[in-house]
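Why predict the complex rather than its parts? Because the way molecules touch one another can change local conformation, and only a joint prediction can capture that. The input here totals 344 residues.
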Amino acid sequence: MRSFEALAREYIDKTAGFVVQCMIEKNLRISLAESCTGGMISQIITSVPGASGIFECGVVSYSERIKEELLGVPKSIIEKYGVVSSETAISMAENVMRISGSDISAGVTGIAGPGGDGINPAGTVYIAVIYKDKRYAANLALNRFGELTRQEIRLGTACAVLKKAEEFINRH
Amino acid sequence: MRSFEALAREYIDKTAGFVVQCMIEKNLRISLAESCTGGMISQIITSVPGASGIFECGVVSYSERIKEELLGVPKSIIEKYGVVSSETAISMAENVMRISGSDISAGVTGIAGPGGDGINPAGTVYIAVIYKDKRYAANLALNRFGELTRQEIRLGTACAVLKKAEEFINRH
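Output of the joint prediction:
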């Protein structure tokens, strides 16, 4: 049986190239605001030759201060819903889209582990993807059975963001 | 003979863990402004468990507009020296340090390829690393013989930044 990591990497390689190609053809630009994935999704998209034409901006905002001051996520959202929440993920995506003027954006906030944050277990990862007037947000709850590593949780998150971006770009 | 990629990944795995551990012990924080590495160095550092305590902020600024508007690199520097220059790399590092308040920062701007930009060949990569009052900048000129791929140029750049960060943190 192939490993989770091998399957995720295969999916990522295939999907990232496809997403970048579609964006080039449709003249679309993407921006990303990543917390627990720490730049992994930006790195995946920019690893495709030609990505400089479609990748506008990425912000890796680990701390609450950077989420608020650099991205512009309202303090009230973080206080009301928590930094690990779909509301914060949506605000991250909205704000990086506002900053960059991109057509599509994603926000990621969660716990890659090892270990939870006292409230959420490792694997609690909220993603938001915005494409024009369409919005998607979900808790991936990637580690229901406690078997995934930090790296696997990050790779699983990257797969989910690419999958939703691909759907949005192709269907609309 | 082992591949360039395998050697680079081994060096990165070893060095990233060591750098993060040293930073935790010395209570230091890092921030990064990446252009051609596209988030790869942020992703490498945040892949180490415990990195949330030392990683402050990463900005992936592919476009000149994001370098100017989000990071605050002066337009005059880009116009005078070019976007691929040690001056721009230093300004990227200075500005992400200013935004984040980190103790150490790095800036990366260059051409990962395939192909050059009309002025610089692929592999022309300027890195800057700042630690407190110390500054380092260099053109890595990674592809003098035209044999490295886009991925290898990005990995080689990550190795060089980690090496300089390790030196600065350990010697001072």
